[in-house]
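User: Can you predict the 3D structure for this chain?
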Amino acid sequence: MTANPLAPDWLRQPGVAGEPDANALAATVWPRNAVRAASGEITLAGATATALAAEFGTPLYVVDEGDVKSRAAEVLAAFTSAFGAVGSTAHVYYAGKAFLSTEIARWVTAAGLNIDVCSGGELAVALAAGVDPARLGFHGNNKSLAEIDRGVEVGVGAIVLDSVVEVERVAAAAEKHGRVQAVRLRINSGVHASTHEFLATAHEDQKFGVPLADAPDVVAAIRSHASLRFLGLHSHIGSQIFESDGFAEAAGRLLMVHAGLLEGGEVPELNLGGGFGIAYTSADEVTPIATIAQELARVVAAECAALGIPVPAIAVEPGRAIIGPSTVTLYEVGTIKDVTVSVGDSGETAVRKYVSVDGGMSDNIRTALYDADYCCTLASRDSDAMPVLTRVVGKHCEAGDVVVKDEFLPSDLTPGDLLAVPGTGAYCRSMASQYNHVPRPPVIAVRDGVAKVLLRRETEDDILALDVS
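Assistant: Here is the predicted structure, written as structure tokens:
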């Protein structure tokens, strides 16, 4: 079989040179309870893809409930163990921006995690789920006065200050409600992840946080208010990070400032943020969370020893690492066409198969926005047909409406088949839109073959309800 020259270097052709066949599911990419059944179709936590599609329609986000809960517990155990070994403690906040619903909030808090919210809407969801406000952290580079007031009023555990302006705003709200509000200060450490430019959130030239050099003055301003209690510094160096080096470097820089701040009062903790990467394709090599936790504990303990200070409590904020791998999106295949493409300047051509599905950039904007890579497979059956290079595209009126840029799918794919795209738990439903007035898909949780609705499918009536004329 001749390799298609349009295929990227990282994409392996199924069944060639020892590669798995096109029906195989890479364990690093798929939910832990996803298997291909003897019938040939994908089964997710005991429910078949065809049964789920028949009951709930497509597109459909399917969450492996047991996978989410186990990953949440494992992250907490990893950091608790690693920092317990160096004489400290760890707090894990689930980053609600990845995906949040009332049921997800209950799952992660039951597993022992806190929740990080970054808008009034996310705060409202967490409160509606019955989460103790003391277990919430409140982020945001431009929290409104109303958001700050509500956060203080309900008693959120910590507010992350993102600018000097917010020091006065939060202090005033705390005085108004007769509270002493715990706060963290987000620092722009100058360390950024080796990732997509839009995801690298610790460059000096960006909107988040205050420069490291300004931290002592801002902390002094915080400490001048009796209505505020300073918890510690906060850093977030980016997203979809596969190695611990960046976290270690940021921790080292923050701890030097942390040590100086101890001279003026207590600094009980250090928040190193989130951004731990997951595998979207079988080519992604992910460092286990336990390894990252152990390496961070080692670095933090060594830095503190060198500085002659106690190891502070550590806080981290994973979101994608918990919800991302747990979720699969099911689509129905619509139109299929072969497109002949020129290869270079040689005059050579190659064929790319375009497969259109009933969703697209309204339910997964990451491919268009971040040039993100995903994989997918035929879900409603297996196939022994020759795999061909395929691009899975959406139904929206945009040339850039791509779901999976490059994948080898069976050549006998036909309209009505189901495709499954794994790794869609983070930033897919949470960034979904109604572009072209396409209603957003539902989110379904499955456990032991039983499915339940977390978020229902939107309808045309929902869209029209916002049209006041």
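Residues 196-202 have pLDDT under 50 and may be disordered. The first strand starts at residue 34 and ends at 36.
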